[in-house]
Amino acid sequence: MFFMIGVTNGKKDLDHRQPATCGACGRYGAYEVFMTYTQLLLFFIPVWKWNRQYFVRMSCCGTVYTLDPAVGEAIARGENPEIRPADLVQVPGTGEVWQGGSTYMPAGYEDQETIRESSAPQNGGTHHRCVICGYETDEDFAFCPKCGQRF
Questions:
Q1: Phi–psi pair at 76, nearest 5 degrees
Q2: What's the whole-model pTM score?
């Protein structure tokens, strides 16, 4: 007899968008909610999910926040709770290019050079660390090979 068992990480976009003013860049955008999880597969069929974490991505600049698990679970059940700023904690180093090509700087960083120096690989190549699943690589990928998130 032969069994096919696997453990993988997954990501699911939840059907919840809420208009909001971004705390990072100050522009008007929307909260886009998604969930990450680890799952056990038996013959390619998901059997059990654990390690659920809920996140909010801002549509304006791409800044990612962790979401209070109670609010995330309510959204996953199909409810429509209001996401308050107190329910969010910013994931450091997130945010994309905005307003004329400058990059949003997380609190505590004086300039882009500080970020480049702190995240630069020792061998002089490109180093990426996924803010969602934590996967690290020195390859020149545009997307995380583990969860598909844009680097």
A1: -65, -30
A2: 0.61
